[in-house]
From TrEMBL:
<dbReference type="GO" id="GO:0005886">
    <property type="term" value="C:plasma membrane"/>
</dbReference>
<dbReference type="InterPro" id="IPR003317">
    <property type="entry name" value="Cyt-d_oxidase_su2"/>
</dbReference>
<keyword id="KW-0479">Metal-binding</keyword>
<feature type="transmembrane region" description="Helical">
    <location>
        <begin position="6"/>
        <end position="36"/>
    </location>
</feature>
<feature type="transmembrane region" description="Helical">
    <location>
        <begin position="249"/>
        <end position="267"/>
    </location>
</feature>
<feature type="transmembrane region" description="Helical">
    <location>
        <begin position="119"/>
        <end position="140"/>
    </location>
</feature>
<dbReference type="GO" id="GO:0019646">
    <property type="term" value="P:aerobic electron transport chain"/>
</dbReference>
<feature type="transmembrane region" description="Helical">
    <location>
        <begin position="221"/>
        <end position="242"/>
    </location>
</feature>
<dbReference type="GO" id="GO:0070069">
    <property type="term" value="C:cytochrome complex"/>
</dbReference>
<dbReference type="GO" id="GO:0016682">
    <property type="term" value="F:oxidoreductase activity, acting on diphenols and related substances as donors, oxygen as acceptor"/>
</dbReference>
<keyword id="KW-0813">Transport</keyword>
<keyword id="KW-1003">Cell membrane</keyword>
<keyword id="KW-0249">Electron transport</keyword>
<feature type="transmembrane region" description="Helical">
    <location>
        <begin position="294"/>
        <end position="313"/>
    </location>
</feature>
<feature type="transmembrane region" description="Helical">
    <location>
        <begin position="57"/>
        <end position="75"/>
    </location>
</feature>
<keyword id="KW-0472">Membrane</keyword>
<dbReference type="Pfam" id="PF02322">
    <property type="entry name" value="Cyt_bd_oxida_II"/>
</dbReference>
């Protein structure tokens, strides 16, 4: 079942890629109203992700599609069992998309404040709910011998899964603050740097608590895996770098932190896909939930061909939109409004 293991690794990489790329989008969405007090500053913050957010969100679709195609039993059990969480997740994603599109449609401060609030709420819901779902995979939910979820809504919200969601929210906040500081100038950059310095210690404490808890929940003791240790070093480096105002390296550190934290969850989960709190014999695993060998072979060929092309295209996109954005670009139009 080497191909099944390969697809588990690729699925983990896709989820990590989603949080690396969409993570700072979510952070910007949560922070855009706080990094600046005027309309021009808020528009500058939003425009740092304007050309990028929808492309980054595709990683979520691809990650879910990889689960569906490579591990259909995993997809079916998780998405049906976590149905309330998935509905709220869709609400959050819709609020974000609509807010970007509608915010500037009416010349009204009240209108913009309303969509600013929905953008903040939607951006908060997404990492929180995905964290709860991913945490539930490892902590365990009631699953019977037919690989069917047999619990209720309360079973989805364990202490560990909720803390996983909170940790991912904090990581996205720090990642987003570092990104705004990297991509803007003037008062917006200063506001983002200040927020980053305030968020960084809380994020570090959350990561330092979450990684041993994850390893312990997996039944492997409290010392984190190698990736976990990398995450610890990266988050401590991020704290130091945001305080020393090294925006570029701070963003690199938050990138490594969020990637290794997400990957650590999957490393501790393997070879399981979903833990059954009813009976460990009912766990969904890489081996009992994978698609047939032929399907995995075809998918592997497609992934080998197209995945590098997607990476090249997104790299080119980031290169094109690499320059900093100033609130001065929006001052005249904001005053006119």
């Amino acid at each position: 079942m080497a191909l099944a293991t390969f697809w588990f690794i690729l699925t983990a990489v896709l989820w990590a890629g989603f949080f690396v790329l969409e993570g700072f989008d979510l952070g910007v969405g949560m922070l855009h109203s706080f990094v600046a007090r005027d309309e021009a500053g808020r528009r500058a913050a939003i425009n740092t992700i304007g050309p990028l957010w929808d492309g980054n969100e595709v990683w979520l679709i691809v990650a879910a599609a990889a689960m569906f195609a490579a591990f259909p039993a995993w997809y079916a059990t998780m998405f049906s069992g976590f149905y309330p969480v998935m509905i709220l997740l869709l609400v959050g994603l819709i609020l974000r998309g609509v807010s970007f599109e509608f915010r500037g449609k009416v010349d009204s401060a009240r209108w913009r404040r309303t969509w600013d609030a929905t953008l903040t709420c939607g951006s908060l819901l997404v990492p929180l709910l995905i964290g709860i779902a991913l945490g539930g995979l490892l902590h365990g939910v009631p699953i019977d011998q037919n690989q069917e979820f047999t619990g209720n809504v309360g079973d989805l919200f364990s202490g560990y899964s909720v803390f996983a969601g909170v940790t991912l929210v904090l990581l996205c906040l720090l990642h987003g603050a570092a990104f705004i500081a990297l991509k803007t100038t003037g008062t917006v950059e200063g506001g983002a740097s200040l927020l980053a310095r305030r968020i960084a210690p809380l994020t570090a404490l959350a990561v330092l608590a979450f990684l041993p808890w994850t390893h312990s929940t997996a039944g492997d003791g409290v010392l984190p895996s190698i990736l976990g240790f990398v995450a610890v070093i990266a988050v401590l480096a991020a704290v130091w770098l945001v305080n020393s105002r090294h925006e570029g390296w701070a963003f690199v550190a938050t990138t490594v932190t969020i990637a290794t934290t997400v990957l650590s969850m999957f490393v501790d989960l393997y070879p399981r896909l979903m833990v059954s709190s009813t009976n460990s014999a009912y766990n969904l695993t890489v081996h009992n939930s994978a698609s047939g060998n032929y399907a995995l072979k075809v998918m592997t060929v497609v992934a080998i061909v197209f995945f590098p092309l997607v990476l090249l295209y997104q790299s080119w996109t980031y290169h094109v939109f690499r320059l900093r954005i100033s609130a001065d670009h929006f001052t005249s139009s904001a005053e006119a409004e």
